Known about the structure:
Layout: H1 2-16, E1 29-30, H2 49-60, E2 63-68, E3 71-76, H3 79-88, H4 100-105, H5 119-134, H6 140-158, E4 164-165, H7 168-184, H8 193-210, H9 227-252, H10 262-274, H11 280-285, H12 289-320, H13 322-335, H14 351-363, E5 373-374, E6 379-381, E7 384-386, E8 391-394, H15 396-400, H16 445-462, E9 463-466, E10 479-480, E11 484-485, E12 491-495, H17 497-504
Parallel strand pairs: 1-2, 3-8
Antiparallel strand pairs: 2-3, 4-12, 5-8, 6-7, 9-12, 10-11
Helix pairs in contact: 5-10, 6-7, 6-16, 7-12, 8-9, 9-12, 12-14, 12-16
The protein binds progesterone.
Progesterone (STR) binds next to helix 8 and helix 12.
Amino acid sequence: MWELLTLLMLILTYFFWPKGKCLVVKYPNSLPALPLVGSLPFLPRHGHPHVNFFKLQRKYGPIYSLRMGSKTTVIIGEHQLAREVLIKKGKDFAGRPQVVTLGILSDNGKGIAFADHGAQWHLHRKLVQATFALFKDGNQRLDNMICQEISLLSDFLATQNGQPVDLSLPVFLAVTNIMCFICFNFTFKIEDPEFKTIEHYINGIMDALGQNTMADIFPILQIFPNKTLEMMRNCVQMREQCLSEIIEKYKENFSSNSINTMLDVLIQAQMNSGNSNADPDQYSKLLSDKHILSTIGDIFGAGVETTCSVVQWTVAFLLHYPQLKKKIQEELDQNVGFNRTPTLSDRNHLLLLEATIREVLRIRPVAPMLIPHQAIVDSSIGGYAIDKGTDIIINLWALHHSEKEWDQPDKFMPERFLDPTGNQLISPSLSYLPFGAGPRTCIGEMLARRELFLFMAWLLQRFDFEVPDDGHMPALEGIPNVVFQVEPFKVKIKVRDAWREAQAEGSPQN
Length: 510
Ligand code: STR
């Protein structure tokens, strides 16, 4: 009788024991958690989340977990573990958590950035990569276009006659136009109503994401009126209207004989999907007009917000380090001079400028916690078990500010990316992933690096940046939103004497 009962107990235990949670499996250290609210009461209320998570590493180590509502989130703050998540086991962790605000933004997981792992994400990512391949390194059409936009920006700045200016709007116009060119092969003027609409909806989306609504942790709250979700819905609707008008007009002149833009690539794939043999229904479901719109919306938003922010961070740091600015200008004067404007081939010679951009991306990463990942299967990190469905945050801030990896990590030192002779760029640490890595790595890295180099080279060749007469220095603490933005600031932009003199001699030709 007793034997039978024991056997029955053993069988029942086997079937009801939670999968993957057997006694020998080790889970990451966990912050305390209460029922319902999880670890929320134990998280610091003030300060930047990436800095707070970095500080918690002292107590909990480079991998630890916390609970948010009913979800488990694992925080990673060391490059070996980050590389395991992003690269070595990239496929296991290629999912994205689905939260309410991002669900609205991505029209239920369409597009690329916030789409979960699956056929739709994969297809759209491939198509966008195919578009970037049209503009690959050495593509004069894109480089000329970027330079043309920067040239217009420079001409505008030259008219400001040393007045303090906020660079946000003029830079926003330039980068928006670069994205417009890549997506649709046209550009806006600052007074165009569509440009105003785009500016309005992108800012609104950024503001809504910056509110960190509780509905993302407790989805049940979305049934109550919620200003943030309302704002997000309005902006997404505005985006849909604006982009669908552009797309409809564009389709009238589409020709499969000339594929030059992202929209060409997407429309062509949509048309082919209709006559594809391989399960046509399945394929065309992934390429509806709504899917195309979401992908274009993602690429647009990503391309604009990020570059705009890094250009402004770079100017802000150069205002704090005027000696560095002078040295970059000397490098420009020696290698480019004033008879021509900088081109991408100067990247091999303007090493201090390149090192400065790399340092800005280290000390103020565009996405200090990347975008959260999610385990799509049961897996492990650093030997710790990770259940399917667990959210993973890579704390890039921790990687970029690790004392173990960087000499004086809080100090802005572009020289760290140069060898002692200053003649070669170096990678001083593996703990540096400004664009992420693996299957979810940033698709726009190549474009971003080209833009950042050209913007800064052109502006520094022609202008001096100075602190306005009121002595207001830009704050360098930053505002952590989905993009780590610099607080708005003004800069006095003056045409350099050397540039003016060279122009008087009639040499520059731009
Ligand atoms: C900016 C605002 C917008 O209109 C659309 C998007 C969607 C893509 C987002 C982008 C946002 C902000 C920057 C992101 C980008 C995807 C990749 C990029 C988050 C919200 C970064 O990882 C920095």
